Amino acid sequence: MGFLKNKAVVLQYQNISDDKTNFLDTWIYHESFEDQLSYFLKNDASIIPLEDTVAYINGYLNLKKQSFSLTFDTGHIELYTLCYPLLKEYGYPATFFIRSDTVGETENVNGRYVNHMNWDQIRELEKGGMTIGMYGCKGRMLTNTPLEEIEKEIVASKSVFEKKLERKVVYYGVREGVPTKPMVSLFKRKGFNAVFSQAPTRQKTQPYAVGRIQIDDNDFNIFLIKTSKAYIFFKDSRYWNFGRQCRLDKVTHLISNTLNRLKGKSVY
């Protein structure tokens, strides 16, 4: 398999929304998300549950073609009202990483008030075939969070999840950051099978450092680039930092914006 295990790729979404007056730059518009699901369907893309991705990374599952797992962070209410119905319509599995301390609450995020799913809604997702994981570090970077704080959060939250859902919670998601060896030891002791972050740099994909590709742009060209074989190959490679230093992401957006203008196409 070489340096990478990249036939199974995990995509990371923050929120799906259609409220253009209360929109964060890491969110995706409802229309854009449906375009992406439609693209997967038309191209016969393989959308697999997260457990299959973990099995593949561990060498327990063979995949014949490029596959994707869909994950959604934070537990915003729109993931229940807008995202979940589309997933059901297209028949795609997904994993939702939830913060137990914000369930059913309204939160101020960068000056915008956002609502979160309650336990009844989360249980409905789970009964509908979706996987529920724990969103850790309260949305902060994993590497900037002290080990003691992570352990305290897990102790307080994991039992709540398992009582409310009546099953084990085995996946841990964070915004970004690669777990250290002490963190890996902690996650294993607490019964987590894998940790999902953003794409690690210069690190082989393995169950306790699964890098996700964040889908946070409504430009369909960027979505096509981020799900392309070339992008997937480089996301965990030693060359990723070089690309960032060269600001390839900004160059890519510039090219895409130019193409959109030439075609007279506007982005949501």
- Write down how many β-strands occur, each being a DSSP E stretch of 2 or more residues: 12
- Helix content class: 25-40%
CATH topology: TIM Barrel
User: CATH class, please?
Assistant: Alpha Beta
In terms of DSSP E residues, the strand content is: 15-25%
Termini, distance in Å?
39 Å
Q: What is the domain tally?
A: 1
Order of helices and strands: EEEHEHEHEEEHEHEHEEHHHH
The shape, in one word, is globular
Summed up, the helix count is 10
CATH homology group: Glycoside hydrolase/deacetylase
Question: How does this structure look, described?
Answer:
There is one protein chain. The chain is 39% helix and 18% strand. It is of the alpha/beta class and 268 residues long. The protein has one domain (8-239): Alpha-Beta Barrel (TIM Barrel), CATH 3.20.20. It has a 7-stranded parallel β-barrel. The protein has a two-stranded parallel ribbon with strand order 2-3. The protein has a two-stranded antiparallel ribbon with strand order 7-8. It is globular and about 55 Å long. The mean pLDDT is 88.
